[in-house]
Amino acid sequence: MSRNTEHQFSMLVREIRKEFVGNGPKEITSRFIGTWAVSEMKGNLTNIEKFMLNSKEGEKMVHEARTEFVKKIYNDPGVRKRFEDLIGANIERIFSDIDIESDIAMTVFVFDKPLPSKE
Asked: Which positions fall inside the Na+-translocating membrane potential-generating system MpsC domain (predicted)?
């Protein structure tokens, strides 16, 4: 059950990123650990964002946009409900960051009860 739910969770993360950001990550892996769902995403940046990385100011803008905008996406009640309906638990907190140089983003969703364990 857990592997399938982890896969569905990853697909939902991709779908939401694509819907709000315009493209989803090229590769995504989600794992459930206790009350946490940890999603690692590779290949997140758009061509425009990659171009912006040619300057320090551009790097800062891309990082801020990718972290702050993603937090706002996940604070949307409709978005949260989609995750909560899939998991059957409420989101308590979300932590998100991106390493611009390696184009790897991590989001940790903290739920109010343990997630399905591996079987």
From this structure: 4-113
* pLDDT tens track for 12-21: 999 998 898 8
Q: Do 53 and 62 contact (CB within 8 A), yes or no?
A: yes
- Outline where DSSP puts E strands in the chain: 27-33, 36-42, 91-99, 104-111
**Nearest of 23, 29, 22, 20 to residue 106 by alpha carbon:** 29
Q: Is 72 exposed, middle or buried (0-12, 13-18, 19+ CB in 10 A)?
A: exposed
Q: What is the pTM of this model?
A: 0.88
To the nearest 10°, report the CA torsion of 58, 63, 69, 71: -170
